[in-house]
Specification:
Blueprint: H1 2-12, H2 23-47, H3 49-55, H4 68-93, H5 98-116, H6 122-144, H7 154-176, H8 178-183, H9 189-193, H10 195-217, H11 223-244, H12 249-268
Helix pairs in contact: 1-2, 2-4, 2-5, 4-5, 5-6, 6-7, 7-10, 7-12, 10-11, 11-12
Length: 273
Amino acid sequence: MLAVIQVVIYIRLLQSDLSVLGLDEIMLLISITMLIAASGYVINDYYDARIDSINKPQRWIAGNTWSLKTVMKVYGGLVGVGALMSIILAAKLSLFIYLFIYPVAIAGLWFYSYALKCRPLAGNLWVALFCGGVVAIIALPDVLHGNTEVISTQLWYYSLFAFLSTWYREAIKDLEDMAGDKLEGCNTFPVRFGITYGKIMAIALGLFLITALIAWEMTQTDSLKKLIFTVLEGSVVATTAFIWWSKDHTYFQKASLLIKGVMLAGTLVLLIK
C-alpha cells in the first residue's frame, strides 16, 4: 500500500520529469519507506506478543509462529539494509539531511512500540504523523532544493487526508482492541477514559476527516471526482454511525474495514485525470 501511494504521488502530484527525484532515486526512496514500515511492524509485534495472543490469536506471529529471537534478527536486518540504502540515496541527491531522517523514523517507530502505543493520543498521533510523512517525503527533496514549482498543491491536501484518516483508523482500532489492551494494562484512550469517551474521540476525528475531504473536494472541477469525494464523505459518516450505535465488537470491525476502503479510494482518486 505504501509503495502504491508513493508511486501514485510521484506520477500524479509531481512533475516527475522536472523533479530532482529520478527513477533510480524514487525507487530507492520507496524501498527505504517500505523497510522502515516493515521494521516498525516487526518491532511492534515483538512488544505486542502477549496482547496479540489475546486480540488476534489466529494471526499471532512473535513468540508463536516465529521465536522472539528470530523476530529481533529480522528487525536488525531490515534496519541495516534500510540504513545502507539511505546513505546511497542521500549521496545521490546531495541531501545529507536525509541521513538524519532515517534514524529519526526508525527510533520513532521503536519508541512508539516500546512506550507510546499504550498512551492516550500520543501513540495514535505518532502513527498518523508517520503516514502523513510518507506522502510529504516525496516532495521533500524538491522543497530542499528550492524546486517547489514541480509540486502540485493536491499533494498537501492528500497529505492531510493521509494524516487524519490514519489517526481516525487508529482511534477505531483502539475501540476494536479494548479487551486485550485492558487485560494487558495497555492504557489507550478508551481504556483510560471509557468506551463512551473513546467513541466521542473517534467520532470527532471522523468529523475532522469529513471537513478535510470537503475542503479537498472544493479544489476539484471534475464532476466524477466530486462524486467520488461525496461518496467518501458519506462513507466516513457511516463509520461514525457504526461507532456511536455499536452493539458489539463487530460494529467496530465494520467501521475499521470501511475506513480502510476510504483510505484506498482516496489514493486511487489521484489516478483520475
